């Protein structure tokens, strides 16, 4: 049974200001929820049609019917469980390796995919500009497929962050007129890669702080494709940085 | 002014069977529509609030109000123009280069992104299994951002297609236990790359026809990411095949 207040709380968490106020976010689906539990996230409430699939404290677990879950869920096909987790405190920063920074990425699906890519490529530090979509937005949480539990994400004034790092770090950014990424020098030590907004790319203010402009070459006869989606561009860029290490080591 | 019959026709084109029956598909937005016109697609009807932006025959062009366009459009923010184009006849096949084949990709956004990637990486031949989402689905058309006009897409019995090509072509497929793509031999001549379904990957029947299994290496300490999204995996794979040519040539 789900109370009116619980429904109201869950509904409010689709908005960033209430997530911030309650320090809670929504995760849906057995696999995703269990990944957050395993990663040490603090469970606040669990609503599920299959409570035997979770090893959690009874006081936190509400058995619900499929109809009730459907009312709570924003997914087209509800995933047997919806949980509220506490938004964790930020971990200590470690910028010694490869850091990814996002300059106003606005689409939740793109941010979710990028977080999953960070997890895949072992990038644990993700810096988001203040205008980047909130990583605890339910659509982002679902798109990360659990990777959100393994990547440290910080929302900072990106200009200020890069100004602080520019003397110790190399700052890369993708531009159409950059050096071809295949042959450009790339390092995974004290390096920051900036990826830009879907429509506008990297903003002029941030561009001034980029020390190494790189480009993903385009192929074929016509070369009319205007740009790559920011998530697919990120996958190519992270792959290029990591492959250098891989091919050196083996 | 939009007639009731025109509204009905446009609405019906959201379903594959009516697109097939009428040989028409929907494209929205000034840029996308002009790319189809420039690429030689046959315009059937254009509904726009800004007819001065198009150089098309008056008999095909209907000036509409924003309110009318909103009724026709499936986009959250209608894009000033909606057009119906004829679905073109298939061009002659040319499988001598790098061919991409999709084994039941089901998400329209993923197929759209993959078509855009083919365009970027100069892959003009895309083979889709019969179960792959229709490339003239309006969501796919929008996600391709005009790239659909530059990639030849064929829906075939994928098993039969690969059986026909297996004696002359190398057939690559991505699997978790494949050879690392960085060091695996890769050729862009008479090569087919198979990418699998979002949930199930490459099906067992198709797997048997793959001659070269490749894998995208995973990095970091935990390596718990289960898989990459099929569109981001495709971007990495196409980049890896093309970069070999690029770095050899330069």
UniProtKB/TrEMBL annotation, chains A, B:
Keywords of this entry: Methyltransferase, Transferase
Keyword Transmembrane: no
Coiled-coil residue spans: none
Gene Ontology CC terms: cytoplasm
MF terms in GO: RNA binding; RNA methyltransferase activity
Residues in RNA 2-O ribose methyltransferase substrate binding domain copies: 26-91
Cited InterPro entries: Alpha/beta_knot_MTases, MRM3-like_sub_bind, Ribosomal_eL30-like_sf, rRNA_Methyltransferase, SpoU_MeTrfase, SpoU_subst-bd, tRNA_m1G_MTases_N
Gene Ontology terms describing biological process: methylation; RNA processing
Family the entry assigns: Belongs to the class IV-like SAM-binding methyltransferase superfamily. RNA methyltransferase TrmH family.
PANTHER family for this protein: RRNA METHYLTRANSFERASE 3, RRNA METHYLTRANSFERASE 3, MITOCHONDRIAL
Protein name: TrmH family RNA methyltransferase
Organism: Aquimarina brevivitae
């Amino acid at each position: 049974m789900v109370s009116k207040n619980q429904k109201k709380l869950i509904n409010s968490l689709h908005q960033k200001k209430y997530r911030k106020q309650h320090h809670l976010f929504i995760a849906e689906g057995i696999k995703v929820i269990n990944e957050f539990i395993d990663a040490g996230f603090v469970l606040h409430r669990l609503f599920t049609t299959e409570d035997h699939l979770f090893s959690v404290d009874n006081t936190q677990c509400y058995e619900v019917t499929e109809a009730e879950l459907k009312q709570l869920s924003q997914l087209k096909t509800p995933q047997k469980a919806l949980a509220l987790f506490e938004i964790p405190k930020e971990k200590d920063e470690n910028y010694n390796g490869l850091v990814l920074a996002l300059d106003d990425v606005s689409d939740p699906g793109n941010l979710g995919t990028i977080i999953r890519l960070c997890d895949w490529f072992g990038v644990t530090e993700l810096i988001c500009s203040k205008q980047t979509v909130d990583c605890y937005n339910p659509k982002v949480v679902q798109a990360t497929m659990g990777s959100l539990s393994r990547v440290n994400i910080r929302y900072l004034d990106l200009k200020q962050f890069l100004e602080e790092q520019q003397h110790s770090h190399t700052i890369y950014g993708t531009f159409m007129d950059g050096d071809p990424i295949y042959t450009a020098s790339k390092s995974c030590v004290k390096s920051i890669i900036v990826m830009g907004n879907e429509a506008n790319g990297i903003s002029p203010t941030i561009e001034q702080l980029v020390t190494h402009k790189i480009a993903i070459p385009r192929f074929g006869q016509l070369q009319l494709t205007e740009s790559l989606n920011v998530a697919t561009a990120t996958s190519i860029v992270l792959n290029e940085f990591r492959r250098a290490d891989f091919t050196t080591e083996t």
